[in-house]
Design brief:
Strand content: 35-45%
Number of strands: 11
Shape: globular
Order of helices and strands: HEEEEHHEEEEEEEH
Radius of gyration: 17 Å
Largest sheet: 11 strands, mixed
């Protein structure tokens, strides 16, 4: 993504930040911790009254920050670190932005899903942040009738700690209707944890 590493007006950063944090809810609950990874979760109420799940990961990585950006922005790594992924593609747009496409194969009772994410990279003296949100598209799945994941937004925060790097991940999602949380939650939590474990090892190996 080096071709897109240019300065971004501050109003774009402000827009993404407000969109991702315009919520109220209880404190985060620690779900799992180990091998330099901490997984937190809470339920929040958006200003429009929607109940949403907010997930937060902190990952200590024994690699430079450029390795993190390499893995998060290159198509060749996508299928490797995204758990239960059948396909992963990236289309660069402009102004440090790109569209990523992920096709998931989830275990029963969840069906396969596809997800288009609009990504925006912001770089400051403090570090790099990739903001993302779902958008409707069919550029990689024309003629197919897959259910699209919607209502996702979040960010990756990359921080240089000199002797290691710190990667923070936040995502807010609106749960699907029709399936109880006691069925969905274990599947989502397992998928997220495995994904982050694989992401960490992928970054440290390149």
């Amino acid at each position: 993504m080096n071709a897109f590493l240019i300065s971004i007006p501050i109003y774009i950063l402000t827009f993404f930040f407000i969109s991702a944090t315009d919520t109220s809810g209880s404190d985060f609950q620690l779900i799992k911790k180990g091998d330099g990874i901490s997984f937190y979760e809470r339920w929040i109420t958006m200003k429009n009254g929607t109940k949403s799940r907010e997930v937060k990961f902190t990952i200590e990585i024994n690699a430079p920050t450029k390795n993190i950006l390499e893995v998060l922005t290159k198509e060749e790594y996508g299928e490797k670190w995204n758990e239960n992924t059948l396909d992963y593609k990236i289309k660069a747009t402009e102004n440090q932005s790109w569209i990523s496409y992920i096709r998931y194969s989830f275990p029963f009772p969840l069906s396969d899903r596809e997800c288009y994410l609009h990504n925006q990279l912001i770089e400051t003296e403090q570090g790099s942040t990739i903001f993302f949100r779902t958008e409707e598209s069919r550029i990689f799945s024309k003629g197919e009738d897959l259910v699209q994941m919607t209502g996702l937004k979040g960010r990756w925060e990359i921080i240089d700690k000199r002797d290691h790097s710190l990667l923070r991940y936040h995502i807010i999602s609106v749960p699907e209707k029709g399936l109880p949380r006691w069925i969905v939650d274990p599947i989502i939590r397992k998928n997220l944890w495995t994904t982050m474990e694989t992401l960490k090892s992928t970054i440290e190996e390149i």
